[in-house]
Design goal:
Pfam families: CD225. It is found in: Membrane. Belongs to the CD225/Dispanin family. Helices cover 69% and strands 0% of the residues. The protein is an all-alpha fold and 112 residues long. It has a domain of 76 residues. The radius of gyration is 32 Å and the shape is rod-shaped. The mean pLDDT is 85.
Length: 112
């Protein structure tokens, strides 16, 4: 036997009445808050009905800024507003596009 093994065998298991101490580190997982920047940019460039796309883009950028600062609640509030504005911009944009196709077709058919 090695000298260290012999000393351990003679001393036996260490008797410590205190329980072993442990340290727990909680790492806060980053909460994913969608900021809808890409959707807002699309609505700004292609379907900017009543400037809703531009306003949604502004709220999306504010949401991203709040997320970078660490204000999750503020980021969620701005993202929710941006999402609502994006939905309305998309609905109105599709509706206007359909009307711009149907009305000229009806006018041409009425002239015949």
């Amino acid at each position: 036997m090695l000298k260290e093994e012999q000393e351990v065998a003679m001393l036996g298991v260490p008797h410590n009445p205190a329980p072993p101490m442990s340290t727990v580190i909680h790492i806060r997982s980053e909460t994913s808050v969608p900021d809808h920047v890409v959707w807002s940019l699309f609505n700004t460039l292609f379907m900017n009905t009543c400037c809703l796309g531009f306003i949604a883009f502004a709220y999306s950028v504010k949401s991203r800024d709040r997320k970078m600062v660490g204000d999750v609640t503020g980021a969620q509030a701005y993202a929710s507003t941006a999402k609502c504005l994006n939905i309305w911009a998309l609905i109105l944009g599709i509706f206007m596009t359909i009307l711009l196709i149907i009305i000229p077709v009806l006018v041409v058919q009425a002239q015949r």
